[in-house]
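Worked example 2:
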Amino acid sequence: MEIRALVTDSNSQVRKNITRSLKELGIKNVAEAADAGQAIEMFEKGKYDIVFAEWNSKTAKGEELVSTLRRTDAKMPIIVTAPQSKQLAEIKKSCPTASNYLTTPFTTDQLKKMVAQCVPSIAG
């Protein structure tokens, strides 16, 4: 099964780091969105198996993006990304329907464990 991922972040370096790590995990089909609006548009046009949603996008808060995606696909694995300086408890409270939360910077091992929890088929 080919896994398709959508990575949303206004910081191009964060997008590149997540994309690079996903490709190291064997996920070759990775689309990138620079903001929540673009991510929603891409999500409506395509099919994704996992989404990385920036907590504080320029166009929408993470909870708005997650909420919009959840209305389309309630079971979609969504990992919210945020800088380590943000309070994780606040993010979890504001965005409780996310599948998991990843603080940046991160290691490939951290990302791999998180993705494996959300998409078991890549755990192998």
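The radius of gyration is 13 Å. The chain has a mean pLDDT of 85.
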